[in-house]
Design goal:
By secondary structure, the chain is mainly alpha-helical. Helices cover 76% and strands 0% of the residues. It has one domain: Up-down Bundle (de novo design (two linked rop proteins)), CATH 1.20.1440.60.
């Protein structure tokens, strides 16, 4: 097992990716190269940057990748809101993701703080 796999924040981000994939399977097929692709990439980027950062030697580099993961998480939230605004998903479903994303964002913030000590 690699170090990043032990991180609860990484585990929760993987769960989010799975849920994003399940959700976007229901989106209109004509959005395959639009919002579906974009939202999947941003969600994937969260766990990928956590993993990549864990392989860096300096704490500053690790914190930088955690910051990038946070940015991707915010992009994912934005895309979910937009998907709701154009009626591809319900606002109630966005609220479920909002809770999940809020938790991951707090965990990323804590991880970044720890990395900079």
């Amino acid at each position: 097992m690699f170090a990043f796999e032990k991180l609860l924040v990484w585990q929760k981000s993987v769960i989010m990716v799975k849920e994003v994939y399940q959700l976007t399977k229901q989106f209109p097929k004509e959005e395959k190269y639009g919002i579906i692709s974009q939202i999947r990439r941003s969600a994937l980027s969260v766990s990928c940057n956590i993993a990549e950062g864990s392989g860096k030697i300096s704490n500053k580099d690790k914190a930088n990748y955690t910051t990038i993961a946070f940015g991707s998480l915010m992009e994912t939230m934005n895309l979910l809101i937009l998907a709701s605004e154009v009626e591809m998903m319900t606002k109630e479903r966005v609220d479920v993701f909002r809770i999940q994303i809020s938790e991951i964002s707090r965990m990323l913030s804590s991880l970044r703080t720890a990395q900079l000590k």
